[in-house]
Amino acid sequence: MRSDTIGTMPRIVETYLRGELERRQAKLQSALASPFADPELSALLGEVDSALARFQNGTYGFCETCHDAIERDRLLIDPLARFCLDDLTESERRALEHDLHLAARIQRGLLPPRHLPTPGWRVAYEYQPAGVVSGDYCDLFASHGELLFLCGDVSGKGVAASLLMSHLHATFRSLADAALPLEEMVDAANRIFLESTIAGQFATLVVGRASSDGTVQLVNAGHLPVLHLSPAVLKPIGSTGVPLGMFSNAHFSTQNLFLAPDEALLVYTDGATEAQDRSGNEFGIERLKALASRHVSVDPETLIKDCLENLKRFTAGRPFGDDFTMLAISRRR
User: Fold this and answer.
1) Do 78 and 182 belong together in one domain?
2) Of 34, 175, 182, 251, which is the most exposed, with the fewest CB atoms less than 10 Å away?
């Protein structure tokens, strides 16, 4: 049996799925009470009733063809799912592939432009999903005369993770308009994220706000260390809080930095550090730090290009096992 099945998922997830089905049942029953209701709603109500009946007899979450467990992420997206991926019909497979590619196009559309005008700063990023869609989060945009940059990793994989990534994107874009202090913005995003997800869904995240005078405010919510590159020393900047979505009352403190001209910050997801060679050895943070320290004072595009080339040599050209994102920001002269 797969490890991500309903048989092994936390009880709170099962409770969530049952509650979601009961809410849909109530809404459909209410809609069908109207004399103008679409007749097709009756068939949809029948599917919901059937899913709740499967909860009652203990067969919910198991494929009706092979009786193996249905993938948990698919159930979270579609609680009415009745078949595992291996037992979808050809037409269902084509429909799923179409939806995946549509999701990928939407996700690519959420990425920031490659050549974003950033007064006082040079920026570059690389974003490579391990599959069709990604759970990594990357964004850059101007907000009230400053540069806001974000890089993170949502728990899980596939479409479920990509939906959470899109949710974070919309949340921070909306909060940026309110011109909140950085720590208040992340506090608010954490509450919104937690209230709209289920237990076990979270996101590690780096959020930074850079001013043209070289000052940078940084929040690291449970993410990997940010690397501050300068001619004098490479300084890792560790986490200042827990990941988003874990605790509603979590507070995220801000670190204040100053970047001199040509100094840079490098932010990355674990697709970089967990990349493996043919023997199963991980690239790791120490290798990344050593690599980055040899590229002080280069432009962000070159820094990321050289990091990526070294990683590909390390993995002997094999695809990365996880979503890969790298973001570099450096102070202009």
Assistant:
1) no
2) 34
